[in-house]
Amino acid sequence: MKKRRDLKAEITQKIVDRIEQGGLLPWICPWDIKQCSPIPVNFGTKKAYTGMNVLLLWMEAVDRGYSNNQWLTFKQAKALGGSVRRGEKSTTCIFYKSVEIDDEQEEDGKKQIPVMKPFNVFNVEQIDGLELPNARPIPNIEQGDLNLSLVKSIEQYCKIQGIALRNGGNRAYYSPFIRLDQNT
Questions:
Q1: From CA 184, how far away is CA 181, in angstroms rounded?
Q2: How far apart are CA 158 and CA 143, in angstroms?
Q3: DSSP label of 143
Q4: Taking the CA atoms of the chain, what radius of gyration do you get in angstroms?
Q5: What is the per-residue DSSP string for 28-80?
Q6: How wide is the angle at C-alpha 24 spanned by C-alphas 20 and 29, nearest 5°?
């Protein structure tokens, strides 16, 4: 008899591992990224993932370095003319719903049973042959609502102090492991 997967334990362990690793937690975004979809979306249906799937896909995107937050099942990718690259690993998500069953022990004769079923998705960056729309550029901080003189003052202070600033990606952080060329 095939042993049943303990999905709750698997998900809980992923979250515990991430917390124990320290550093930036993928479910915390300390700034507003209006031009990017912070919520994972199904590329085919354009529907946002919900519940624990948001957390699972955020963690996977951070761990694997994906910059695109769109996902597809293997069948959806194939139906859209794409093909998952050989050797790519899927990400497990959870389909959840409540099913009502008859139960004589309940007052109303009905009982809600939770049903959890795993399904696997791939990030669109793992799939060849899809027609992806051109990514919208993330606006420069100077294009935002911040006071331009404040930004210039901060940049000038950093220059005087020898602090190198780099823009890019959708995460902000300091890492003692990243060393930049002193001439930058």
A1: 6
A2: 20
A3: G
A4: 22
A5: ---S--TTS--S-EETTT-PBP-THHHHHHHHHHHHHT----EEE-HHHHHHT
A6: 135
Mean pLDDT of 166-178: 60
At which residue do the structure tokens 């049973």 appear?
113
DSSP string of 107-139?
TTSEEEEEEEEEEEEEEGGGEES--PPPPPPPP
* Best CA proximity match to 55, nearest among 67, 69, 76: 69
Q: Higher pLDDT residue, 83 or 11? A: 83
Q: 13-30 in b/e burial notation, b at 16+ Cβ within 10 A?
A: ebeeebeeeeeeebeeee
Mean pLDDT estimate for the chain: 76
Query: Tokens 């003052």 correspond to what residue?
Result: 153
- For strands 70-72 and 41-42, give the pairing: parallel
CB 124 within 8 A of CB 68: yes
